[in-house]
Specification:
The structure is a single chain. The chain is of the alpha/beta class. Helices cover 47% and strands 13% of the residues. Helix 8 links the parallel strand 7 and strand 8. Helix 3 runs antiparallel to helix 4 and helix 9 crosses helix 11. The two termini are 21 Å apart. Bound molecules: acetoacetyl-coenzyme A and nicotinamide-adenine-dinucleotide. Nicotinamide-adenine-dinucleotide binds next to helix 2 and helix 6. This is Hydroxyacyl-coenzyme A dehydrogenase, mitochondrial. Its main location: mitochondrion.
């Protein structure tokens, strides 16, 4: 299906017959995570607006979404082509893209931010969003590691702000961590939990603590794997094989680092290290820094710990 399908006038047909808690969803940032979140929201009957800073980036995201949707359709409908096509068409009709951030939130019931993992950049965005969105609109961040309370601090809607932490690849991973700060209202929390279930995710709740549940365990584990490699104790390939065959993980730590993005992982570690300098688990390694400085960010740039086909 052509990319232009994403820019057609939005059809409200499917969602208008569904009684969704939060119908109009704006996703800011169309990278790895934002495109997946937008896709899953559209698949489940929401009207979705996906925002990024340029049209070429949005075009890339649209193509990623279409490829992923084809995989989902294949799984859902096997060889039933008419049903598969109908599913793709209806999902794409519920998705539109734009570079106009302020306009994108005018009718939003919820805005999910999935931009770069940097507090200042997120603050600048949320200041703009807070002015542009209706008072009733809920705000959520998909941050991997930053404090939701600190991100929300620049807005006048701290009670309508929470964390919605998705996992990569969003169309496949079943978990959604719902983060409530001390100021998140019960109403906001309940709506976010219902929204998560409507997206087809299993929700768990966590306080606003570094890394929430999954990353608090996963990121130090990946950091420790890099330290093993740096010391020359084992090769990346052998460490990956060990964790897949010895611990039953679907990917080894280096495959996962390449999948998540070395830059994202380094941002996480550096941020935690700055806040908690005495915790050795949060120490970023020289090898990770070197690879990132060389632009070897993992699958998204074609090389990280391994070489990949782009
Ligand atoms: N879109 C849609 N479907 C997809 C997909 C995508 N992007 N990627 C994989 N799939 C589907 C495939 O179509 C396939 O479907 P079938 O079972 O019907 O064939 C299924 O998922 C399995 O895919 P593959 O056969 O291609 O490969 P696989 O079996 O190796 O699984 C994987 C791929 C699901 C990514 C698996 O390797 C895995 O679970 N890896 C670990 C991922 C993980 O840990 N994610 C969390 C990262 S941490 C994070 O996200 C948080 C953070 O803040 C950093
Ligand atoms: P990414 O680099 O793939 O995508 C980020 C996108 O945001 C880019 O397309 C960029 O152009 C866009 N962007 C940057 N500033 C913007 C702005 N002001 N307005 C609109 N768009 C803007 O990053 P990602 O991996 O998708 O991560 C996004 C967020 O999700 C981060 O906070 C990250 O920590 C978190 N996260 C990442 C993963 C992962 O596995 N990569 C998993 C869970 C959560």
């Amino acid at each position: 299906m052509a990319f232009s399908a994403l820019n057609i006038v939005r059809s409200f047909s499917s969602s208008s017959v569904m009684n969704l808690a939060l119908k109009n969803v704006t996703v800011i940032g169309s990278g790895l995570m934002g495109s997946g979140i937008a896709q899953v929201a559209a698949q489940t009957g929401h009207n979705v607006t996906l925002v990024d800073v340029s049209d070429p980036i949005l075009k890339k995201a649209s193509s990623r979404i279409e490829k992923s949707l084809e995989r989902v359709a294949k799984k859902k409908f096997h060889d039933n082509e008419p049903e598969s096509e109908k599913f793709m068409k209806e999902t794409l009709q519920r998705l539109k893209t734009t570079t106009n951030t302020a306009d994108s939130v005018k009718e939003a019931d919820i805005v999910i931010e999935a931009i770069v993992e940097n507090m200042k950049v997120k603050h600048d965005l949320f200041k703009t969003l807070d002015k542009a969105a209706p008072k009733s609109t809920l705000f959520a961040s998909n941050t991997s590691s930053l404090s939701i309370t600190e991100i929300a601090s620049v807005t006048d809607r701290k009670d309508r702000f929470g964390g919605l932490h998705f996992f990569n690849p969003v169309p496949v991973m079943k978990l959604l961590e719902v983060i409530r700060t001390q100021e998140t209202s019960d109403d906001t929390y309940n709506k976010m939990m219902t929204f998560g279930k409507e997206l087809g995710k299993t929700t768990i709740t966590c306080k606003d603590t570094p890394g929430f549940v999954v990353n608090r365990l996963l990121v130090p584990y990946m950091g420790e794997a890099v330290r093993l490699l740096e010391r020359g104790d084992a090769t990346a390939r052998d460490i990956d094989t060990a964790m897949k065959l010895g611990a039953g993980y679907p990917m080894g730590p280096f495959e996962l680092l390449d999948y998540v993005g070395l830059d994202t992982t380094l941002f996480i570690l550096e941020g935690w290290h700055e806040k908690y300098p005495d915790n050795p688990l949060f120490q970023p390694s020289d090898m990770l820094k070197k690879l990132v400085s060389e632009g070897k960010l993992g699958m998204k740039t074609g090389e990280g710990f391994y070489k990949h086909q782009k």
